[in-house]
Amino acid sequence: DALAMPDTEIVKTLFMKGIAVSITQSLDTSTVIMVAEELEVLVDTPEPEAEARKVTEMLDIEDMENLHLRPPVVTIMGHVDHGKTTLLDSIRKSKVASGEAGGITQHIGAYHVDIEHNEKEQQIVFLDTPGHEAFTAMRARGARVTDIAILVVAADDGVRPQTIEAIKHAQAAEVPIIVAINKIDKEAAQPDRVKQELMQYGLTSEEWGGDTIMVPVSAIKGENLDTLLEMIVLVSEVEDLQANPERSAKGTVIEAHLDKAKGAVATLLIQNGTLHVGDILVAGSVFGKVRAMVDDRGERVDIASPSFAVEVLGLNDVPFAGDDFEVFTNEKEARLLANERAEVIRQSRLMQGGRVTLTSISAQAQEGELKELNLILKADVQGSVEAILGSLKQIPQNEIHIRMLLSAPGEITQTDIDLAAASGAVIIGFNTTFASGARQAADEAGVDVREYNIIYKLLEDIQDALEGLLEPEL
Ligand code: GDP
């Protein structure tokens, strides 16, 4: 777009220079400069460090001169009953309520705590929808809202299926994990066993020579929570999280509902810029002017800065959690964009276009455009999982790499669907069924679920897909 040159021309230009690229490929900086020079266009290159920053999706080149540290946004994940809710509550109580006049807090989907670190006041923002359902659902919508994941594992119970799921989800999103080994007050607590088990999933504790921070805590007694918070700040320093508070705001909707009295209410997480009362914004396909903002402590505020979440009134409809939002200076332009998006959503619902299926993968392989095949495998028993994984390894993977995001015995669940949608993966079910509601979810999300009960047929289809030979089913 910047060169005002069709992409086929770029491919041709490079081809003439002996560089073969496909249309969907990314070019490195020196190649980009080379193409631009042909057209006498000057290329401005930001510092490589800034370029490599993980959150670049929310940062523009203009922001690079005005970057300031921002607080980390943290999600708590883990198996049911391991203490996610208790941990969120204890942290909130220990850090918010005590110092607050009256201690009135309000659930808006996120809260922040103030902690003292290196004699400086530091903030941490917690998304307080525990469980990874919300996290994965947001990722399925393309939103990256979490900087750090806290994985809660009960010391008396160890690694369980949802623990493993949470690890896979955080790893797939490339979010750093801090482990909170919880319930250490219990007699049956075996923190070392937890550490041992986690090693199988690529998480080795620092004390054992690995690089994963693991903090033993008791959420119920409030024990060691300060250490946990301290570790969050340390990891966030390493991550070097930045944003440009001087610009207009953009970010993600983390919760939204319709209130009878107030109308559409949405909690917005500010990921870049500063949001002001009176700002005009588009959230997903919804348009509005910020009439009022309330923070997590129930106070009316006029501005919200990077990493903070505020509840916003004034939208013309209820957006979806995971929708992105952005502030506009021109009201007409904003309204137009919201309407256009609503139309696009309507159209794509009609067409279900762009979905990843094993046959579309095969077509890509045929075109030589496929690099990676993301799979999720669910099978009846662990023995089948291992047998299939073993056989998949035998398939020659010269150009294309099979990436197994998750493999486990059990039914195909909603979270599998969410993970597949978020990662463009195909789900393989072997001798298994759908959990209730999951089949419909797969249809709605356009996720391809292939069911098999004969291993060789499964392997044959995957091999065919990788070789670009899989025929579409009629
Ligand atoms: P969640 O499903 O992960 O949100 O788990 P909850 O926070 O609801 O906790 C499940 C149960 O474990 C509750 O009965 C809690 O009281 C209990 N629990 C949570 N943390 C601790 C802890 O540190 N020690 C003990 N003894 N019990 C805990």
From TrEMBL:
Q: Identify the domain of life.
A: Bacteria
Residues that bind GTP? 78-85, 128-132, 182-185
Q: Where is the Tr-type G domain?
A: 69-246
Transmembrane spans: none
Query: Where's it found, cell-wise?
Result: Cytoplasm
Q: What does this protein do?
A: One of the essential components for the initiation of protein synthesis. Protects formylmethionyl-tRNA from spontaneous hydrolysis and promotes its binding to the 30S ribosomal subunits. Also involved in the hydrolysis of GTP during the formation of the 70S ribosomal complex.
Q: According to its UniProt record, which protein family does this protein belong to?
A: Belongs to the TRAFAC class translation factor GTPase superfamily. Classic translation factor GTPase family. IF-2 subfamily.
Q: What is this protein called?
A: Translation initiation factor IF-2
Species of origin: Calothrix parasitica NIES-267
Name of the gene encoding the protein in the UniProt record:
infB
Query: Whole protein: which stretch is covered?
Result: 477 to 950 of 1052
